[in-house]
């Protein structure tokens, strides 16, 4: 016979769960050089879906990692300016593509950043 389920802690858990995350990994259709993300509008101008909790989890997590391919077909996913800003760049800490990693210079605790702009790590 199974034991009864454990009861929830008696202390109150308040606030949004997304504000309690250490890390979050999100995908994006486009990312620009200021780390802004677009997850709603394709490069052809068509709405491809909804943003879901993309901006909320990016803002709430201690470290936000965004993944995107360097190219989607023949269209670059990393660009000068995104079509539509869904998630502001100040909430994104790291962008990972199939060609490398960029660390947002706004991230204050990054030891790789030495005031030279985004840190770029290649594999």
* Average pLDDT figure: 82
Overall form: globular
Q: How would you spell out the order of helices and strands?
A: EEEHEEEEEEE
Quote the distance from N terminus to C terminus: 53 Å
**Counting H and I runs of at least 4 residues, what is the number of helices?**
1
What can you tell me about this protein's structure?
By secondary structure, this protein is mostly beta strands. 6% of the residues lie in helices and 26% in strands. The chain is built from one helix and ten strands. The chain has one helix at 54-60; strands at 23-27, 30-32, 37-38, 63-67, 71-72, 75-76, 78-79, 94-96, 100-103, 119-122. The strands form three sheets. The protein has a five-stranded mixed beta sheet, covered by helices on one side. A three-stranded mixed beta sheet has the order 3-2-7, with no helix packed on it. β5 and β6 (75-76) form a beta hairpin. The model has no long low-confidence stretch (mean pLDDT 82).
Descriptive tags:
123 residues; mainly beta; three-stranded mixed sheet; 1 helix; 10 strands; 26% strand; globular
Summarize the entry for a quick read:
The chain has 123 residues and is mainly β. It has one helix and ten strands.
Topology:
Elements (H helix, E strand, L loop, with lengths): L22 E5 L2 E3 L4 E2 L15 H7 L2 E5 L3 E2 L2 E2 L1 E2 L14 E3 L3 E4 L15 E4 L1
Parallel strand pairs: 1-4, 2-7, 4-8
Antiparallel strand pairs: 2-3, 5-6, 8-9, 9-10
């Amino acid at each position: 016979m199974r034991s009864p389920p454990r009861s929830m802690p008696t202390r109150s858990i308040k606030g949004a769960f997304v504000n309690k995350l250490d890390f979050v990994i999100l995908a994006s259709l486009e990312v620009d050089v200021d780390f802004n993300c677009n997850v709603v509008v394709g490069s052809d101008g068509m709405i491809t879906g909804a943003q879901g909790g993309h901006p909320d989890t990016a803002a709430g997590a201690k470290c936000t990692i965004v993944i995107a391919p360097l190219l989607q077909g023949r269209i670059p996913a990393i660009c000068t300016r995104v079509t539509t800003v869904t998630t502001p760049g100040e909430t994104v800490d790291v962008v990972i593509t199939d060609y490398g990693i960029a660390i947002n210079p706004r991230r204050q605790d990054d030891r790789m950043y030495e005031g030279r702009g985004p840190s770029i790590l290649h594999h």
